[in-house]
Amino acid sequence: MSGPAVPATLAEPAFLDLPDGRRMRYRLDAPCAGGTAADVVLMLHGIGCSLEDFDDQHALLRQRYRCLSVDLAGFGRSDRPAEPMSLVALARSALDVLDALGLTAPVHVVGNSLGGAVAMQLAAQAPERVRDLVLLDPAGFGRTVTWALRVLAVRPLGRRLLVPSLEATRRAQRGIFADPALVTEERVRRAHELSLRPHGTEVMVETADALGTFWGVRPGWRRRLVRALARTDLPVLVVWGERDRILPATHVRAVRRSLPRAQVHVLAGTGHMPQVERPERVAELAQRFWEGCAP
Questions:
Q1: Which position among 102, 112, 253, 255 has the lowest Cβ density within 10 Å, counted as fewest Cβ atoms?
Q2: Shortest CA distance to 264 belongs to which of 177, 105, 134?
Q3: Rounded distance, CA 151 to CA 154, Å?
Q4: Which of 105, 147, 149 has its CA nearest to residue 128?
Q5: Do 117 and 140 form a contact (C-beta atoms < 8 A)?
Q6: Which domains does the chain have, with CATH numbers?
Q7: 164 vs 129: CA distance, rounded Å
């Protein structure tokens, strides 16, 4: 499934200059109905990716919502944080974007992979800014992760593995999707361009080392974060691709144990990015969830 064509009216990405001098790249679409009073949906991508991973969701959700996607600090074309890479730094940068745009009311937060962990961290740091969470194949619920990310956590090996090449980028993209048709030359080209950024390798290695080891995702931050999220009592929807080769769908068992009130959906024949592979289904589940959470 290739997803809907992105309409020509989708807002162009823009840059924000933050008070500390950093630049953050974002896309903000005003809804076709509802104007500036409509609910805001903040969308956060995964490691090594960019806001374009949510273009289909902008196209599908902008009828009713103000859709805001962000290049996480250090990824895409956003500047890296001044401090070492961490979930706290990434969540703080996302909050900085909301503040700079004047979006101070609570928002719906959607996060994929690393972006899911950032979404949880944002909710733990500033629960008053979050209405609810939609987590798409999120990091944080299990130790098992693809070998490629485990190797990145060993810094000398990670730097060697991340020497940019089109073929390496193509292999990485093939690991993300269950449907090989989604590994288009356009997607490979965009991912390869991002890998050429001057700080790209260090950001990837630093993030992988902060969150994992050669043996898998570090348990300490996972347990602390999930406990902190549970204490917020925020509504949570989790969607997982059954054929995820990055973070396996078996992690949903931990979701059900630690967040028993969360809604959980496993999508058959779907890989690590359900918002790209099953865009209509993800948008449908998200809207139904938000409508059910409405006061």
A1: 102
A2: 134
A3: 5
A4: 105
A5: yes
A6: 14-148+217-293 (3.40.50.1820)
A7: 38
Q: Which residue has the tokens 């997607």?
A: 187
CA angle 22, 27, 28 (to 5 degrees): 115
Q: Which is it for the CA torsion 262, 265, 266, 270, positive or negative?
A: negative
d(CA 215, CA 151): 9
| Coil, helix or strand at residue 18 | coil
pTM given for the model = 0.92
Tokens of 201: 């390798």
What pLDDT digit, counting tens, does each position of 65-79 carry? 999 999 999 999 999
**Euclidean distance between the first and the last CA atom of the chain, given in angstroms as a whole number:** 35
Place of tokens 């961490």: 86
**53 vs 40: CA distance, rounded Å:** 18
87, 118 Cβ separation under 8 angstroms: yes
CA torsion 93→114→65→58, rounded to 10°? 110
